[in-house]
Amino acid sequence: MKITSAVFNASATDLSSCLDEALPEFAFIGRSNVGKSTLLNTLAGKRDLARVSDTPGFTKMINFFTINHKWRLVDLPGYGFAKVAKSDRAKFSQLIEAYLLSRKNLACVFVLIDSSIKPLAIDLDFVQWIGNAGKPFALVFTKTDKVKAGKASENIELFMGAIASWFVDPPEIFTTSCKTKEGVRELLGVIASCVA
Ligand SMILES: Nc1nc2c(ncn2[C@@H]2O[C@H](COP(=O)(O)OP(=O)(O)O)[C@@H](O)[C@H]2O)c(=O)[nH]1
Ligand SMILES: [Mg+2]
């Protein structure tokens, strides 16, 4: 799919300030620093579309981008701040939960996971949550350029092993690198087939 136009529309701090639900949306979620904004920019082919490296405040917002006038990329706030107590009902914000549970135009959630590290409880918990919520999602293992190929595969295998018992069919997985552009064509292919 060729990207001919990519436009930042709006930032929302609550559900009521989100855009209308007229276009299909593809949302990016994951821990802060996993590479959401960078991947969004890489897919859109525009380096400065979403702000890379979080700045406080900005991270608490949902950012909407319309691509080719037909569909949207949505940059969600990062989850998993160390300060949030484990006993909290959910380890991610009410805003993320509200968005994911209520948007009728949510075509797919891309859950980003850092392929260069071993599985983290916060990511496993989120995958279990979104699976239980019955939302369409795929796993995107990022930053494959950071470690040797064997190491990334090992981390991905560990992750898939840890979630295996929660799913009848394991979720679809992708591997990406914004340095080598690995996975870009595949992700755009998923989007293309959803919006076709
Ligand atoms: N080596 C490498 N670094 C990446 C990749 N994607 C993102 N980064 C870096 O990771 C940091 C966080 O990226 P960002 O997109 O702001 O993460 P976000 O907080 O999830 O939106 C930045 O320094 C990026 O340059 C990647 O594929 N490979
Ligand atoms: Mg970001």
Provide the helix percentage. Answer: 25-40%
Attached small molecules: guanosine-5'-diphosphate, magnesium ion
Q: Assign the CATH class.
A: Alpha Beta
Strand order of the largest sheet: 1-3-4-2-5-6-7
Give the C-alpha Rg. Answer: 16 Å
Q: Based on CA inertia axes, which overall geometry fits? A: globular
Structural class: alpha/beta
Give the count of structural domains: 1
Fourth-level CATH superfamily = P-loop containing nucleotide triphosphate hydrolases
Distance between the termini: 11 Å
The CATH topology is given as Rossmann fold
Number of strands: 7
Low-confidence stretches: none
* Beta-strand fraction estimate: 15-25%
* Element order: H for helix, E for strand: EEHEEHEHEHEH
User: Residue-averaged pLDDT, rounded?
Assistant: 90
Largest β sheet strand count, sense and barrel closure: 7 strands, mixed
Could you characterize the architecture of this molecule?
There is one protein chain. This protein has 196 residues and is α/β, with parallel strands linked by helices. The protein has a single domain (6-195), classed as P-loop containing nucleotide triphosphate hydrolases (Rossmann fold, 3-Layer(aba) Sandwich), CATH 3.40.50.300. The chain contains 5 helices and 7 strands. Strands 1-3-4-2-5-6-7 form a 7-stranded mixed sheet, with helices on both faces. A hairpin with a 3-residue loop joins strand 3 and strand 4. The longest helix is centred in the last third of the chain and has 15 residues, at 149-163. Bound molecules: guanosine-5'-diphosphate and magnesium ion. Guanosine-5'-diphosphate is lined by residues 30, 32-38, 52-54, 78, 142-143, 145-146, 177-179.
